[in-house]
Amino acid sequence: MRHTSLLTLLVFIAGLGVGLLARSTYTGILHRKDTHAVDLAAIAKLHEADVAATLTQDPAALTTLWSDDGVNLGFPGQPVVGISALREAYAKFRAGYPDFQVLHYAPNIKDIQVADGWAIEVIYGESTYKLAAKDNPVTVKGESLRVLKRQSDGSWKFALVGLK
Question: Which terminus of the chain, N or C, has less C-beta within 10 A?
Fold first, then answer.
């Protein structure tokens, strides 16, 4: 009887260990799914802010979309690196084109991959703008790649934007 009790105890402990392992693995998967959903919701907020800031062309609103060490490859010339350089580039563009107006901006995000506080997305977009009030509207279509960075508060900001 003593041998049976010991065997029963060992089987019970082994079952408990397997159950705890299975539960922690399942909980980890659920936690990753929950985190992924939270990340996607926060990224969607960044997308909404991007559209709003692009349509208004407010340099301050455009600057808030970027991480402190963000890199924008969309300006002519050298890459614009860092939040202060981005703020300056947006203000300089606005000063140079005071009547610049975005009439339509529709980023079509085709793919988002999220991992370890970073996200990569591919965008096929279409924009219509006027450089000056008297100019005819210009429509451009293009592709871009954006790298996003999760901030310490859980929000997401652009870390790199490259145009094709």
Answer: N
Kindly report, residue by residue over 88-117, the tens digit of the pLDDT.
Answer: 999 999 999 999 999 999 999 988 999 999
Any idea where the domains of the chain sit in the sequence? 2-163
- The band of 30, judged by pLDDT with boundaries at 50, 70 and 90, is very low
Residues in Cβ contact with 64 at an 8 Å cutoff, skipping those fewer than 6 apart? 49, 53
Q: Which class would CATH give 2-163? A: alpha beta
Amino acid at 114: V
Lateral strand order in the sheet of 118-130: 80-81, 66-72, 156-163, 138-150, 118-130, 101-115
Q: Are strands 156-163 and 138-150 parallel, antiparallel or unpaired?
A: antiparallel
Contact 102, 57 (CB under 8 A): yes
Work out the angle at residue 90's Cα, subtended by the Cα atoms of residues 89 and 95, and round it to the nearest 5 degrees: 95
**49 touches 62 (CB < 8 A):** no
